[in-house]
Design a protein that fits this description.
Layout lengths: L1 E3 L4 H7 L2 H23 L9 H14 L1 H26 L5 H8 L4 H35 L4 H9 L1 H31 L4 E5 L8 H4 L5 E3 L5 E2 L2 E2 L11 E7 L1
Antiparallel strand pairs: 1-6, 2-3, 2-6, 4-5
Helix pairs in contact: 2-4, 2-6, 2-8, 3-6, 4-6, 4-8, 6-7, 6-8
């Protein structure tokens, strides 16, 4: 026999990561804005400066390494703490033994994996900006009639980097929460979860169709050509409602 977690879980899951997301987004935005400052410090209509600009952005990416570890570690620790609190609330009707097993689940491997992935994503903010500037510059060389338009796009690279930083923060905090929840649920024999949406007008059709469906942890669905569990896809506000063995 299996059971879902308590009805209290919905409000807890949808709100528990908001502080972590705000803090993470604030930190990543700082990186993106500095990327914009670097790019805007070079004349956008001179292709000869692109190698120097790219080199500067690549060096900045490497300098971010230790900072990225520290920033991502704080985010993961915050989400982990909130996940524990949510499990306490949603497991009121479980036995003490089962609750203790869940709260003391071995999440170290999941957290190490999450940390490594976050560091790569943070360091990618300046690298992706460098790629964008390089590609735009090539377009300007190939089509001189669009030079002024392309120069404006290059100058807007900081804003593009900031949008990427915001997407990373929204997606990765949610994915961290779902990953830690999965690790704890699996530790007590959970085979899967019920897909839950935020049940508002912004839910994508493909995600809306998943609402209420059972999903195996071992078989994440593919929606809109992207594969992942609830809360793990870009801008996904859905969440897994784990099915726990009696």
């Amino acid at each position: 026999m299996h059971r879902r977690t308590s009805d209290q879980k919905k409000s807890l899951t949808l709100t528990k990561t908001s502080r972590a997301e705000r803090q993470y987004q604030s930190q990543l935005t700082k990186v993106a804005r500095f990327v914009g400052d670097i790019i805007n410090g070079f004349p956008p209509d001179e292709p000869s400066v692109v190698p120097a600009m790219t080199n500067t952005l690549e060096r900045y990416s490497e300098l971010l390494h230790d900072w990225a570890i520290s920033t991502a570690s704080r985010m993961i620790a915050e989400v982990n703490q909130q996940d524990k609190k949510a499990w306490v609330a949603r497991s009121e009707d479980m036995s003490k033994t089962l609750r203790d097993e869940i709260l003391n689940a071995p999440t170290g491997q999941a957290m190490r994996g999450l940390l490594a992935e976050q560091v790569v994503l943070i360091k990618s903010i300046p690298l992706k900006a460098a790629e964008r500037v390089h590609e735009l510059t090539l377009q300007g060389i190939e089509d001189a009639t669009r030079a002024s338009e392309i120069s404006k796009k290059i100058m807007a690279s900081g804003g593009v980097a900031e949008s990427r930083a915001n997407l990373i923060a929204r997606t990765e905090v949610s994915r961290t929460a779902s990953t830690l929840l999965e690790a704890r649920a699996r530790s007590v024999g959970s085979k899967g979860y019920i897909w839950r949406t935020s049940e508002d007008t912004d839910v994508r059709d493909s995600h809306k169709k998943m609402n209420g469906e059972f999903v195996s942890w071992d078989e994440p669905p593919t929606l809109d050509n992207l594969t992942g569990h609830a809360g793990c896809l870009p801008n996904c506000r859905c969440y897994p409602d784990p099915v726990i063995p009696e």
